[in-house]
Every structure is written in structure tokens, then in C-alpha cells.
Write a structure and sequence with these properties.
The chain is mostly helical and about 325 residues long. The protein has 13 helices and 2 strands; from the N terminus they run H-H-H-H-H-H-H-E-H-H-E-H-H-H-H. A two-stranded antiparallel sheet has the order 1-2. Helix 2 packs across helix 5, helix 7 crosses helix 12 and helix 12 packs across helix 13. It is globular. The structure holds protoporphyrin IX containing FE. Protoporphyrin IX containing FE binds next to helix 3, helix 7 and strand 1.
Amino acid sequence: MVLYTALFLVLNLGSQLIGAQHLQVGFYNNKCKDAELIVKEEVEKAFAKDNGIAPGLLRMHFHDTFVRGCDASILIDSTPGNLAEKDGPPNGITLRGFEVIYNAKARLEAECEGVVSCADILSFAARDSVHITGGMFWEVPAGRRDGRISRASETVDIPPPFGNLSVITQAFRKKGLTQDEMVALLGAHTIGRSHCTSFSNRLYNFSPTNSQDPTLNRFYASQLKQECPQGPGGSIDPNLVVEMNLSPALMDPSYFADVLKCRGLFTSDQTLTTSPQTKNQTEEYAGNGLIWQQDFVAAMIKMSQIEVLTGAPGERRSEIRSNCRRINP
Ligand code: HEM
């Protein structure tokens, strides 16, 4: 019963946001009726082989929305004259799951050519990724079009893992998201993995006075040091990865309990305990997973509508890309 009430609240919230943004739930019903089903099948197929696909796609969607909005600019390949977003510093070797979107797009082009945007495919796939890892399901308002520009230099809009509360809050505000929404979204760090290089400064060279970050739980720090040992000259193997937490395949609220135990992996996670407001919210989510689920879904629906291209009059150029890897000729 509680779950149904929560679900209703979430769907209701979703529909309030939709009108404001010109996107529609069921956008493809009359245009390409199996669009969402095909994306879901591709996510499921890939997940059966590698469950890391789910966190990979969720993160990819976040990174796409923070650079030029949700326009699938992250999916575009670099060319000799242009280093694309996917090869920018926060993406480079750490993003995964591209082939799931490319495969879904190939099937959709065969089924209904030129109809389903890469941006919508990515948004559906992020939703399916949350659902497949035991999280909530929600209806995704659709009708996004794809952008024609992708620049690695613009990935500076993606907040860094060493950012403190004011840095990361500012990055979310810049995209129209509140600090509360940011805290809810950070719960995504309950699934997946991280490369050691994304946080090794906290273990070995934190500051001139502390080699190890004093806000990091000591036992957790020594575990991480074992998983991410220093090589010659203090180097860290760029291929080494650790799991985000003890249940990295489950979309549960354990992230918030971890942060309260000083087991947040990044500075940007642990920083949630540094203000009374974000600490209270972290405690609330750690104690009540349903509230977090509702807030997470509402924030995802909002994030996935950042600066969308809908082909409205006066809008900058957009298209339905026929291959997600490159802009149409
Ligand atoms: C302050 C904001 C954020 C920062 C600084 C941040 C940073 C990071 C970093 C450094 C990694 C590890 C990448 C690697 O080394 O492999 C990561 C992973 C991840 N992030 Fe975030 N993130 C933020 C917000 C978000 C949001 C809003 C979402 C989604 C709603 C998200 C979803 C994920 C997921 C699912 C992973 C695991 C990826 C995988 O397993 O491949 N993150 N994040």
C-alpha cells in the first residue's frame, strides 16, 4: 500500500513537470509504438552479460544532461577536427554502456527510421537501469531532439569528485537543480564502481599536513589503500576500480548510511555531512528509503529535462540523429 501511494505521488509529480517542459509521456505511442520496449530489451540483454551496464548508463545520462542539456551530445564520436564530450576528462576511460544505446538505436532505425532521438533513448535507458537494479520505475516524458555540437572543453560543467559542498551545489544550481535535488540524485552512488584515480588523492596526498583525508573512516581508508596500492613513484594504476559500496548492484539507500559513517567515496559525497541541512536530509534518506526513492525519481525527471531541444520555433538547430555516434550530414 505504502509503495503504491509512493508510486502514485511520483507519477503525479512527473506529470506536473511535463507540461512545463513540452515533453510528453507516451510520446512514441503513435509514432513508434515499441520504442520504449526495444530500449528496455537492449538494457536487459546487456545487463544479463554485465550488470555494470546499469550504473554506466545512469551516469552517462547525468553527464549528458549537464553539458548542453539532454541532447545526446555525449554519444558523439570525436573527429580529427573536434574532441567530443565523450573524450573529455570526466568521461574518457570511465564511462561505459555506449554500445547499449548504439544497439537500441540501430534496432529503432530499422523499425521506424528517423523517429526516435538518441537523447530519448538515453533517458529511457537510464530509467530502465534504475529499475533493473531494484529501484523505482517511472514514466519518462519524451520528445527530446538531438544536438549537433559536442565539445570536450564543455565537460567543465560536470562537478568534480574533489568538490566541496559549495562547489557541487553551484554546479547543480547552474543547471536549475536545487541542493535538495542534488542530495537525492547523489544517492545514485549506491550502484556501480569507481576508478581508484578518481579518489586516490584522499588516500595518499590529501593536503600538506594530512596525507590521508581525516574525514574518511580509517578502516575504510585502509581497505581502499589495499584495493588501490601505489605503484612506482606513487603512481596509481589507471585501470584499478573499487565498488561504490557493499551492495553495488542494488539501488538501495545504503549510500546515505555510508556517508553518515564517513564511508563516502568522494569528497563530493562526504561533504553532505558538512552543513546541517544536507546532513539532515542524508539522515532522513538513510532512515526512510521510500522518501529517498520519491525524491530521487522527481529529481531524475527534472534532470532529464535540462535544456531539452524540442524543435520549438526559435530553438537552436536540432535533429533526430540517424546514428547516435555522429551528427547527420
Ligand atoms: C557532485 C556530483 C557528482 C560527482 C562529483 C560524481 C562523481 C563520480 C565519479 C568520480 C565517479 C567514478 C567514475 C570512475 O572513476 O569510474 C562516479 C560514478 C558514478 N556516478 Fe557520479 N558523480 C556525481 C553525481 C552523480 C549523479 C547526479 C548521478 C546520477 C543521477 C551519478 C551516477 C553515478 C553512477 C551510477 C556511477 C557509477 C558508474 C559506473 O559504475 O560505471 N553521479 N561519479
